Every structure is written in structure tokens, then in C-alpha cells.
Amino acid sequence: MSLGGRVLFEGASFAVNYGDRVALVGPNGAGKTTLFSIILKQKEADSGTVARDEWTMVGHLPQEAEAHGGETILDVATGRVDELPRLEKRLHELEAAGDVACPEYLEAHAKHDALNDPQVETKAKRMLRGLGFRDTDFGRKACEMSGGWIMRARLARLLVMEPDLLLLDEPTNHLDLLALLWLQNYLKNYSGALLLISHDRQFMDEVVTQVHEISERKVIAYTGNYTDFLRQKDERYEQQLAAYKNQQKEIRALQEFVDRFRAVPSKSSQAMSKLKQIERMEQIEKPLAPRKPFRFQIPPPPRGGQRAVSLEGIHMAYGATQVYCGLDLTIERGERTVLVGPNGAGKSTLLKILAGVVEFQKGGRNLGHNAKIGYFSQHRSDTLDPDKSVLDEVLTSAPAMREDEARAVLGSFMFRKDDIYKKTAILSGGEKSRLNLIKFLVDPPNLLLMDEPTTHLDIHTVESLTMALERYEGTLVFISHDVHFIRHLATKVLHVSGGRVTPYVGGYDYFLEKTGTADDARAALTVA
After folding, report:
1. Residues paired with residue 503 on neighbouring β-strands, in sequence order
2. What distance in Å separates the CA atoms of residue 369 and residue 365, rounded to the nearest whole number?
3. For 135-176, where are the alpha helices, taking DSSP H only?
4. Which has the closest alpha carbon to 35: 9, 61, 55, 53?
5. How far apart are the first and last CA of the chain?
6. Measuring CA to CA, which of 13, 179, 388, 513 is 20 to 30 A from 346?
7. CB atoms within 10 A of CB 517
């Protein structure tokens, strides 16, 4: 398959059998989503075929989705407003054309039956509850809710239909911790096959049993979860490198003999024989070394006081919606605190209060001595100069940094070659996110507040960021749903729920143990 003149993959072959749980991995732009589109017959490959059991029902969750008209969340989850009428129309068209034995008809019929089940509403409500919806949300108009909640409702619809093959593109992007654990447990017990794209390392470790990597224009299969894949990939590289070196050594020896004795009459025929031996060899290509996380040392920030920031008696409301009432909170120097809790509980609001970017109605916010705040928000384009290049933004943020150092950091965050000369005005959302992240790392504050910093980053870049923040000497408060990222960084957990902020002085696993959060997810699964 070629896209924009670039070959994504060639001769790619693999199979997904009933019950398989497969992760499709590779760097951004490798062609993972394109391969999904080929499987779904939304795009046509340049060559090759996609064959599937004609009785297979396929369900697909894209990365983004919108609501249409006045449909409610329950309408989305049951498909009764858009999906069911669309299926009925298509079935009538195929019946009129006499195509009642074709795979499309069989699949449409299976989906129609699943959504027309008398128990569909009961099933949908169970799935919605597992994914974090309250019963009062079922009747809400979907268009009034965020894209993340609409994606959850669409995921609920897929799970209601129970397809034979689930294609999930970044399914954890919009899930809070409890919903993520629920989905993780659900998929572990799912009876159908699963093919997913994810940048969540922990999620893949828990769910998948095979990994297919798009690398060097090939699709390479590995057995096991993501951690097993990393180990096997390193082993495969060492084996290929050894084979390449051995062949090169053999070729050099043969070529030396040819060069030495070609002109010697008594040895010339032997020399020509060795030359043909070289020509007949199937040349082993030198393998590319596996991409490793870039190790970047964050410069020491200015030293602050023992208390980084404190809140006293904070009252915060958006209109009639009360978020906090009399909130007290102190963040100490050197703490690495993660905010966890359901979506809409007020985590981002709390981070904004700490950063001083929203006005609260009552109470006090007190910064510690010599505090230098860096706030990495979900909306990251406002802090960039549209007339500056990517490279200039970094060099302006860190005047003492050499250009070669800036280029190295930019390269590790996927700004390569001419990318560094792009004006920030034309960058994509993901590129702006990564550039803002770099600016924080090269000129660090001593109080770093980060809202979902791993969004738009591939796994290797997340690993680079994780390693850099592990060595960061300042105070960190962050929101994330990347469990691997949380586990490596958090030394304290603030659980935000129902207007209350409950501290747990310990890491992520300590929080799970003390709160029984993982048990809650399993209990919700049992109910569903």
C-alpha cells in the first residue's frame, strides 16, 4: 500500500483467527489506521487481498466520532436512531438486488439482529455503566457531551453487538481510570477476536497475546504481550545482525580470493567460481537497530520553598454547577502527584486553580517561595508564536542551548529534517503538543502542572518523557490515564470525586490497594 508516493508496506501477510487478541504497533505514520481501512474495505490496497469468513461480523471503533441530531446517549449505545435504520435500508437494497447470500448481507443481518434484540436496551445500559456513565446520563442529548463521552457510547454499542472481530483504534484515549480498568477486564474475557491500535503499553500488556509490528515496510508477527514483543524484537535484531556480519565476512573472504587470483592462470577458474558464488548469494540486508527511547536530562530548575503551592477554603463553581466547596490542599516540594478520578470530577479544574489560570469564587491560593510555574494544558497552541519556526521556539525558550542539542531533542520528539523549520502556525495539534512539551523540558519550572501530557505521543516518545521526568528535580502534578506513565512517576495520588480531594501518600498500586478500585472495575464487569 502506497500513500502520498510513500510505500507503507509491501507483501504484508497475517491472519487473525477466532479468539486472537492482537495489537498492531509501529511509529506514527507507519500505516496502522490505513491497514484498518483496508480490512474494512474503506480503502483499496495497491495489490493483495483481504479474505474473511463470510459469517464474520466486524465492529470498528474509530479514533473520533460525532453525534447527529437530537439522539440521546442511550440512542447512540443502542443504535436505534442511526445504525438500525441504516442497516434496515441496506438489507432492503440487497434483498431487492437478490444479494441475500453475499457476505455484506449476512453481516448486516447479524448486526440488525443484535441491535433488534428485546434485551438491547438492558445490555446497553450495563455497558454504559461500566464505561462510566450515570443513569441520569442515558437520556441526555449526545451533542451536548464531549467527543470523549460520545466515543464511550459508541464503544458501548459495539460491545452490545458482540462482533466476531473488534477493530479498536486507540480505545483508551477518552477513558478515566475506572472505565479503562473495566474495559481491560471486559476484553480479557471477550469471546470474539480483537485487533487494536494503542499507545497504552500497560493496556496492551494486560489484554493482547500477539503483536504485529509495521516496520521497514513489512508486517512482522510476535507472540505474547507488548513487553514480550520488545524482548523478542531485540533478540531478532541481534540474530539478524549476526547473520549479516557473518555473511559480510564470508563475502570479504571470497572477494579477497577473487581479487588475488583472478589474473593467475592456474587459479583463475577457481576465482571465477567464487565470484559466481558471491553473485548467487541471497544478500542479507543490514537490519535497522530497534528504536530506543531518547535519554534527555532536564536541566535543574531554580530551587523553590518547601511548600510549592497551597489552597485554602477554595469555592469553585461553573454557573450552578458546584465543583469544590471549602477545598484545602498543599503540594510539597519534590512531590510527584497524579490526579485521578472520573471524567468531569474536576481534575483539570483543580490543575487550573493550582496554575492560577481560572478565577475561583472564594478562598486563597498561595505560591511557595521562588515558585516558577509551568502549566501544560490540554489546549496547547496559545503559547506558541505563529511566526516562529519550531527550532526558533526551542532556542528562544533555552538561550543557553546549542543548536545541535536543540535538534537532538526535537528529533527525539519526532521533529526531523525540515520539520524543524516549519512555522508553528501550520503545525498539527499533535505537533503543537509535542513542541510545547519540549519547551517545558529545556527551560523547566520548579512546579510543573501537566494535563494529559502523553496525548499524541507514540510509545517511544512517552518512554523518553517518562525517563526525563523521573530525573526531574522539581515538583510535578499531573493528570494521565496512561497507567505505565503513572506507575513510573507518581509517588502520591489525589483522588478527585464528588467535590472531595482525598490524598494517598504512595504510588498507583498503593492507591488501587487502599481504594479497591480494581475490584470495583471487576465488580462493574460482573454486573454488566
Report:
1. 494
2. 13
3. 147-161
4. 9
5. 40
6. 513
7. 17
Q: Is 455's pLDDT higher than 90?
A: no
State whether the Cα torsion 128-133-136-139 is positive or negative: negative
Model confidence pLDDT, tens digit, residues 89-103: 999 999 999 988 888
| Nearest-angstrom CA–CA distance, 436 and 381 | 8
Retrieve residue 381's grid coordinates: 497552541
Residue 423 DSSP SS3: strand
Ranges assigned E (strand) in 282-360: 307-318, 321-332, 336-340
Stretch 355-361: mean pLDDT, rounded? 93
Any idea what the Cα angle at residue 59 is, between residues 86 and 11, rounded to 5°?
Answer: 120
Cell of 44: 483499496
pLDDT tens sequence across 195-237: 999 989 999 999 999 999 998 889 999 999 999 999 999 999 9
By CB neighbour count within 10 A (0-12 exposed, 13-18 middle, 19+ buried), where does 251 fall? middle
Neighbours of 72 (CB within 10 A): 20
State which H helix or E strand residue 355 sits in. helix 347-355
Using only C-alpha atoms, the chain has a radius of gyration, in whole angstroms, of: 27
What is each CA distance from 128 to 71, 81, 291, 409, in whole angstroms?
15, 17, 39, 42
**Side chain identity at residue 12, one-letter code:** A
- Tell me how far apart the alpha carbons of residues 399 and 2 are, in angstroms, rounded to a whole number: 42
Q: Dump the DSSP string for 338-349.
A: EEE--TTSSHHH
How is the beta sheet containing 307-318 ordered, strand by strand?
321-332, 307-318, 362-367
| Amino acid identity at 316 | M
Task: Give every CB contact of residue 129 below 8 A, 6+ residues apart in sequence.
Answer: 135, 524, 527, 528
* All residues at 6 or more sequence positions from 453 whose CB lies less than 8 Å from its CB, including other chains: 376, 437, 465, 478, 480
pLDDT classification of 380: cutoffs 50, 70, 90: low
Distance CA 36, CA 497 (A): 37
DSSP 361: S
Cell (9 digits) for 288: 535497522
Q: Are 493 and 322 in contact (CB under 8 A)?
A: no
Does residue 483 have a pLDDT over 70?
yes
- For 191, 238, 451, 519, the CA distances from 527, given in Å and listed in that order, are 17, 48, 32, 12
- Which residues, including other chains, have CB under 8 Å from residue 52's CB and lie 6 or more apart? 58, 103, 165
Burial label for 499, CB within 10 Å (0-12, 13-18, 19+), is middle
> Grid cell 498561595 — which residue?
366
User: How many residues are given for the chain?
Assistant: 528
Residue type for position 266: S
Q: Does 527 score more than 50 pLDDT?
A: no
